[in-house]
Amino acid sequence: MTAPALPGAPFLAWRGHELTLEGHSLSALAREFGTPLYVYSRAAMRHALAAYTDALQGRAHLLCYAMKANSSLAVLQTFAQAGCGFDIVSVGELERVLAAGGSAAKVVFSGVGKRPDEMRRALQEGVRCFNVESVHELHTLSAVATGLGLRAPVSLRINPDVDAKTHPYISTGLKANKFGIAHDEALAAYRTAARLPGLEVVGIDCHIGSQITEVGPYLDTVDRLLDLVEALQAEGITLHHIDVGGGLGITYTDETPPDAGLLVRELLARVDARGHGHRELLFEPGRSLVGNAGVLLTEVLVLKAGGEKHFCIVDAAMNDLVRPAMYEATMGIVPCALRDGASRRYDVVGPVCESGDWLGRDRALAVEPGDHLAVLSAGAYAMAMASNYNSRPRAAEVMLDGPRAHLIRERETVSELFANEKLIG
Ligand SMILES: *Cc1c(COP(=O)(O)O)cnc(C)c1O
């Protein structure tokens, strides 16, 4: 059988019949640590980060890894050690940053529904900035900050009404979305922010969607933001930073997103052309830093002929990886060791009692029970979205780092699943 193409190369590569990540045999890792198992390459994460940082050399900038994509501590540690900040959407994420050795001073706090207690904790830790998503939030945040005798640094998340041309569930910059402050209400919102006693206006922010595969929507967005920056400057409100959000796509199958370096260079050119090159640029990439750095390993349990289809039933399920069920996402699925012999078309499904429990449809595979499969590009929005549905403990995670394979999360145990539950006494 010919070896299928691999997103995530060169870190993911065929070595003869064996699939390897950062030089490690994935079959061997599946046997050593059991399945389902997430495996990540630290070198691949650093490589993805370097595409941004190389293009930003010599410019005032901060890369805030959008940690909701993958918030495992060792992943955060990898980015913290590389000098990154973090984009967080809850106080739980702030606590993870701190536990991983990250610095609150490099944290931007996004999200449409921040609770006052979350604001308080973030203020006490000294986060870099709150990305505020409504006028109501401005008033609440000002009151919370005043109560602590502090001023909250704020950036307003603007909804630029730009079509990111991505899946409706992950498009966030259209008027119809719940996110951000409408572009035509932004000036009034900034004036309010500038006069509230507990706030200090520091920047402007946006985030138009996820899995974006074109540069155009970013350039349109940055133009919309710069229009506001200029209008505010004319009123004496100076914005020190411009946060262009995250959202850059990756290759799952046949997508061809721009390289992060190209995106950064085009954005810088636009910002410079309009005379704003002195302002600090913030980025909030999530998926593009980790997506192609990880795989989910699973074991084939049963091959079953249905009435019209053949099913390859594996030990990973929608609770481990919900992207196919939730977004109808297509992710590559390949054997960890290629077999000779004829392939057959299978729906690759898990053991969960839902017809929506599928990982891939109509895939040509030559497999036998006991073989291991790798679901590719599973570093983002995968483990971070895992649940315990069907009382299934969450998978273990391994981080490869050169010759070493570190177990960074132990497999959950069944007793942990109901440790917080009580019978009625
Ligand atoms: C999710 C999110 C990001 C990251 O999006 P990716 O598509 O993973 O790059 C950035 N900023 C905000 C506010 C987000 O909600």
Description:
- Helices cover 28% and strands 25% of the residues.
- It is α/β, with parallel strands linked by helices and 425 residues long.
- α2 packs parallel to α9 (260-273).
- The chain contains twelve helices and 21 strands.
- Strands 4, 14, 15, 16, 17, 18, 19, 20 and 21 form a nine-stranded mixed beta sheet that branches. Strands 5-6-7-8-9-11-12-13 form an eight-stranded parallel β-barrel, surrounded by four helices.
- The chain folds into two domains: 12-41 and 291-417, Lyase, Ornithine Decarboxylase, Chain A, domain 1 (Beta Barrel); 110-285, TIM Barrel, CATH 3.20.20.10.
- The protein has helices spanning 26-33, 42-55, 73-81, 91-99, 116-125, 135-147, 186-195, 216-234, 260-273, 287-290, 323-327, 414-417; strands spanning 12-15, 18-21, 24-25, 37-41, 61-66, 85-88, 107-109, 129-132, 152-159, 181-182, 199-205, 241-243, 280-283, 294-305, 310-314, 333-335, 344-349, 358-365, 372-375, 396-401, 404-409.
- Residues 66, 68-69, 87, 89, 110, 207, 210, 245-248, 284-288 line the site of pyridoxal-5'-phosphate (PLP).
Q: Could you outline the blueprint of secondary structure elements for this entry?
A:
Blueprint: E1 12-15, E2 18-21, E3 24-25, H1 26-33, E4 37-41, H2 42-55, E5 61-66, H3 73-81, E6 85-88, H4 91-99, E7 107-109, H5 116-125, E8 129-132, H6 135-147, E9 152-159, E10 181-182, H7 186-195, E11 199-205, H8 216-234, E12 241-243, H9 260-273, E13 280-283, H10 287-290, E14 294-305, E15 310-314, H11 323-327, E16 333-335, E17 344-349, E18 358-365, E19 372-375, E20 396-401, E21 404-409, H12 414-417
Parallel strand pairs: 4-20, 5-6, 5-13, 6-7, 7-8, 8-9, 9-10, 9-11, 11-12, 12-13, 15-17
Antiparallel strand pairs: 1-2, 2-3, 4-14, 14-15, 14-19, 16-19, 17-18, 20-21
Helix pairs in contact: 2-9, 5-6, 8-9
Bound molecules: pyridoxal-5'-phosphate (PLP).
